[in-house]
Amino acid sequence: MIGGGLAGSEAAWQAAEQGQHVTLYEMRPERPTPAHTTDRLAELVCSNSLGSNLVDRPAGLLKEELRRLGSLVIACADATALPAGGALAVDRENFARLVTERVLSHPRITVQRAEVTALPRPEDAPTVIATGPLTSPALSQAIAALAGAEHLYFYDAMAPIVTLDSIDMDKAFRASRYGRGSSPGGEDYINCPMDRAEYEAFYRALVTAERIPLRDFEREDPRFFEGCLPVEVIAARGERALAYGPLRPVGLRDPRTGRRPYAVVQLRQDNLAGTLYNLVGFQTNLRWAEQARVFRMIPGLEHAEFVRFGQMHRNTFINAPALLDATLQCRKQRNLFFGGQVTGTEGYVGSTASGWLAGVNAARLATGQPLVTLPPTTMIGALCRYVASAEEKGFQPMKPNMGLLPPLSDPPRRKAERAQMYAARSLRDLEAVLMTLGREVGS
Description:
With 443 residues, this protein is α+β, with helices and mostly antiparallel strands. The chain has helices at 6-17, 58-68, 72-79, 92-105, 137-147, 196-208, 216-219, 231-235, 288-295, 320-323, 348-366, 379-389, 415-436, and strands at 22-25, 49-52, 81-82, 87-90, 109-112, 127-129, 152-158, 161-163, 173-175, 189-194, 263-269, 276-279, 306-308, 311-318, 336-338. The protein has two domains: 6-156 and 313-436, FAD/NAD(P)-binding domain (3-Layer(bba) Sandwich), CATH 3.50.50.60; 161-309, Elongation Factor Tu (Ef-tu), domain 3, CATH 2.40.30. Helix content is 32%, strand content 15%. Helix 1 packs parallel to helix 11, helix 2 (58-68) packs parallel to helix 11 (348-366) and helix 2 runs parallel beside helix 13.
């Protein structure tokens, strides 16, 4: 196992619990990173919250699945939890200390404090790469040599994603520019039209909104933002820069007025089920609360539900759909697995989930057992299916969200009831998998 973060610690634990002798490599403290401050395993470098603990919320459902699968990370989080309402927040120092103690005390895990700079050979033991968003330059070069440089990314520019149900279609309309879409009627995009007053109010709010400060290693790197400007940076170049750029209305007519809007925000389908849409051209470095405030000024998005906010930051990740199966096994080298944020599973719990699957399958490969693919109706199965089967072009990391799950056969109208049905189906299908496997996984 390479990497001692959440995913690497989880992967090592799961493989060891299946009887494998595991060597876990962590380069800290021999080689520090710009974000970490200790040498502990599973150090949380951002928030101390792992998100909702409610089973009818995406992060809460994923946590409950991981509890039933015997997750080390979630068990340690539960043991070090702080009061946080419906969320699972932890004492970050005690959490990292507990994970470190449990991993170090496991009789089948050896921790090596050394940097790994090369990939294993095809004849070597199964290996999991879980090195996270700050993978060292030497190992990044080795991954690029295997995957192809075009399949390894270092800078993450993600546009916000909203749920279809939260878009007000009384104000928005479906259309492609000049009707040149691939769907019947050329209606590939959802369009949110703006008149001049609405555009100018949006522009003023956007250019004055609070941004996330860049960290030193991002600010000093000349490649940061190269070729992918944040929407607020474009706006700052002039009041009409957006109207002539990503918000240009050419080729579109509002069917309610029969006229071309002054500006238009386009939303593009983001998942196969058609339940999620991203804001085209809206990569941004605004704080998340500011994104919610400013982007809800867009007509049709007043009540938008954001399943992912826009981000621009240093983030090493692979083009997983081009390289991985849903088991997280690398197609180009079958003894190699990837887990954690380097795969594109975003967030603490998503990272843990892919680490769990990578560790389990590495152990099963070592013993000649069939690899596990969890049902797409489970959140962990849907998340790993996403990173393995999303569109390769423009692939971006994703956090757990209900939009990844297959639609319900007879969904109720109320959102809360739908979420409860998604959760019930997920846990029922997960139990069926555990029974089929004889509970050797996660026991």
